[in-house]
């Protein structure tokens, strides 16, 4: 079985997540997974429901909200459930799980998924049962993902047709959706947005841009600092390999770093190609092919998806480090040999890896819709966000200088004829403000310190209206997953802070409830968790 080099591009081109820290040496179970899909969650604390109580609906949206002369529309998908709706409530609230990049939603998004279960659905249940609040819950799919693609005479992901895909259009979609539901319900209701990763960015921006419509937002693992070149992603991965709380150690880091240093000297050798199951060893004579193989890691290091409770081999940092350290100390294997052993365990035995930069560019240029929506997100990185995870200096645990930003800029040029990436990202910074969120209110920012995306998150806040929490030992919005018996104390406390903060904003109990939870947060680093007013 041949695996093409297009998979090598996933770590750079596709965020947050787009589909997790995924690359060519990872098994097919890891590929194209959104953020923490590795965690096989099941519903155990949110009351179990089947999909019959979740309704799938389509809403007619303007294709271009900023051109009133363009009357074209498309059908945007959303999901809803009234399982937390009460007949005689103390008040009514609407919760919205904001969609983003990656595979489209299905009905499980309002039952049990990685998106909004541990925060939004749990809180809806609490507010309904304990506070007598009627909560209507929704999930809105992002345009150009899932089943929310506009229809054209040709593919929706041609360069010409992708011009209608942007976060600004998506926010207008969200505003129109809220207006539509308010009209349908016949009342103005307080809305709270929830989202993790890029949807977390949108959840915050929706509150900032439409404060008259969105009452509050919960923004999890959101990269609100917009950058083209993002070397800090791999800097955090390197830190995680040394982070004892999640099983890292200096020796684990050294194996990875030294192994990649050895790889730079041997990458064009036949034995290297054999050890790492490269289909055509001759391709590794070319520098660009060496770069796309070594610049993002020869093995999968699950920093972004780290789950301390997983049980599969090499499924988290602790299990990966323990395995590498054990075989390194017990054998005469070099560090590179250890990486080859790991790579073989993370991949199927019957597949080889096709490393061909030119062929990859051809594949990326095809206007093909995929279930993962990778071309849509790639477009957004070139035109709005960047977020290119580069390996340029010695802080990168992989092959330093083997992934420079020129690789990503070349993709934008070839795939979309976009040559003004820096100007595009500067425009986004000017429009959204990046980490400068002065003047905003009632948005809670949460980040995990194991998550490489936390380097772009709002980690500290002196504004009591914009509380910020950092969760030690936590990966990419791990608290939005359904509750598990293996959840760390810090994850449990993070959820408690979300519940207390949002409940405080929505009810008159914020002062006492906030103080009660603040007293139990342990090692959470937080700032002004409960707002007044």
Task: Report on the architecture of this protein.
With 533 residues, this protein is an alpha/beta fold. 35% of the residues lie in helices and 13% in strands. The chain contains 16 helices and 13 strands. The chain has a 9-stranded mixed β-sheet, with helices on both faces. The chain has a two-stranded parallel ribbon with strand order 1-9. Strands 8-10 form a two-stranded parallel ribbon. The radius of gyration is 23 Å and the shape is globular. 53% of the residues are buried.
Strand order of the largest sheet: 2-3-5-4-6-7-11-12-13
Shape: globular
Instruction: Report the end-to-end length measured between terminal Cα atoms.
Output: 59 Å
What's the total count of β strands?
13
In DSSP terms (H or I, runs of 4 or more residues), the helix count works out at 16
Sheet/helix structural class: alpha/beta
Gyration radius over CA: 23 Å
What string, H for helix and E for strand, traces the elements in order?
EHEEEHEHEHEEHHHHHHEHHEHHEEHHE
**Estimated share of beta-strand residues:** 5-15%
Mean of the pLDDT scores? 87
What would the keywords be for this entry?
533 residues, alpha/beta, nine-stranded mixed β-sheet, disordered C terminus
């Amino acid at each position: 079985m041949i695996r093409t080099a297009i998979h090598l591009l996933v770590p750079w081109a596709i965020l947050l997540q787009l589909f997790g820290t995924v690359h060519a040496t990872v098994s097919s179970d890891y590929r194209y997974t959104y953020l923490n899909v590795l965690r096989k969650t099941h519903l155990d604390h949110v009351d179990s429901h089947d999909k019959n109580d979740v309704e799938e609906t389509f809403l007619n949206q303007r294709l271009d909200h900023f051109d009133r002369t363009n009357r074209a529309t498309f059908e945007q998908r959303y999901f809803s459930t009234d399982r937390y709706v009460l007949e005689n409530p103390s008040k009514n609230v609407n919760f919205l799980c904001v969609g983003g990049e990656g595979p489209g939603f299905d009905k499980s998004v309002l039952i049990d998924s990685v998106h909004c279960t541990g925060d939004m659905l749990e809180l809806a249940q609490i507010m309904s049962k304990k506070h007598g609040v009627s909560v209507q819950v929704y999930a809105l799919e992002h345009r150009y993902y899932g089943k929310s693609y506009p229809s054209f005479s040709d593919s929706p992901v041609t360069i010409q047709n992708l011009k209608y895909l942007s976060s600004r259009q998506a926010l207008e979609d969200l505003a129109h959706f809220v207006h539509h539901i308010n009209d349908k319900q016949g009342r103005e209701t307080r809305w709270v947005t929830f989202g993790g990763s890029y949807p977390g960015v949108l959840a915050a921006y929706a509150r900032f841009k439409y404060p008259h419509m969105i009452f509050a937002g919960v923004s999890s693992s959101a990269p609100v600092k917009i950058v083209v070149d993002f070397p800090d992603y791999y800097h955090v991965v390197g830190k995680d390999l040394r982070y004892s709380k999640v099983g890292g150690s200096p020796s684990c880091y050294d194996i990875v770093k030294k192994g990649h240093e050895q790889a730079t000297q041997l990458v064009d050798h036949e034995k290297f190609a054999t050890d790492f199951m490269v289909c055509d060893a001759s391709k590794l004579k070319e520098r660009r092919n060496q770069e796309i193989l070594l610049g993002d890691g020869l093995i999968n290091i699950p920093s972004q998806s780290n789950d301390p409770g997983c049980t599969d081999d090499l499924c988290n940092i602790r299990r990966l480090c323990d395995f590498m350290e054990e075989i390194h100390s017990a054998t005469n294997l070099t560090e590179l040999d250890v990486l080859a052993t790991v790579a073989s365990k993370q991949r199927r035995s019957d597949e080889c890896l096709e490393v061909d930069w030119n062929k990859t560019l051809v594949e990326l240029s095809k206007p093909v819709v995929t279930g993962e929506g990778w071309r849509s997100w790639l477009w957004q990185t070139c035109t709005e966000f960047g977020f290119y995870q580069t390996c340029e200096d010695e802080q990168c645990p992989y092959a330093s200088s083997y992934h420079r930003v020129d690789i990503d800029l070349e993709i934008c040029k070839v795939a979309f004829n976009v040559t003004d990436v820096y100007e595009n990202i500067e425009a986004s910074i000017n429009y959204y403000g990046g980490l400068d969120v002065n003047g905003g209110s009632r948005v809670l920012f949460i980040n995990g310190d194991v998550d490489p995306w936390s380097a772009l998150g709002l980690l500290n806040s002196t504004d009591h209206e914009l509380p910020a929490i950092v969760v030690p030992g936590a990966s990419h919005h791990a608290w939005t997953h359904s509750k598990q018996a293996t959840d760390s104390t810090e994850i449990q406390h993070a959820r408690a802070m979300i519940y207390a903060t949002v409940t405080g904003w929505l009810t008159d109990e914020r002062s006492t409830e906030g103080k009660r939870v603040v007293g139990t947060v342990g090692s959470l680093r937080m700032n002004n968790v409960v707002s007044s007013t």
